[in-house]
Write a structure and sequence with these properties.
Elements lengths: L3 E2 L5 H4 L5 E7 L11 E3 L2 E3 L5 E5 L2 H12 L9 H6 L5 H6 L5 E7 L3 H16 L10
Antiparallel strand pairs: 1-6, 2-5, 2-6, 3-4
């Protein structure tokens, strides 16, 4: 799987123009060689998925995600960013620093269906949704 660091100045040219499913991860270190595993209820997610989302066009949706997570940005254009920066979960941002967050893309012509399938598969495997997806 290929990961794109959201703070990379060359991030935008690497974002596919089509739509599909995207996943937010965090690199384990500043070198960006491996993603950080995430402990879950039924095991460890070695893909380190923090959020699963869908987009009809990756460029628009993932740019909103990048802005919403950015410490300088005050907008609420993406629910994942609002959850990430929620003051009640300050330790989340400390454990998964914005400077190491990255995105992977899965282009598909059926983003909504593919997202639903990805979320169901995640819950079946780990017993819960990714930490930044809606829990209820």
């Amino acid at each position: 799987m290929r990961y794109f660091l959201i703070t990379d100045p060359d991030f935008y040219p690497n974002v596919p123009t089509m739509g599909g499913v995207y996943r937010l991860h965090c690199f384990a270190n500043d070198e960006g060689s491996d993603v950080m595993p995430v402990p879950r209820v039924l095991g460890v997610d070695h893909e380190g998925i923090l959020y699963i989302g869908k987009a009809t066009a990756f460029t628009d949706r993932v740019i909103n995600l990048k802005k919403a997570i950015s410490p300088e940005f005050r907008g609420t254009s993406h629910i994942c960013g609002r959850r990430y920066k929620n003051p009640h979960y300050q330790s989340f941002g400390e454990r998964f620093p914005a400077s190491r967050l990255c995105v992977s893309f899965e282009p598909t012509s059926t983003p909504e269906k593919s997202e639903r399938e990805a979320l169901i598969a995640y819950v079946m495997r780990f017993g819960e949704l990714p930490p930044l997806n809606r829990q209820g």
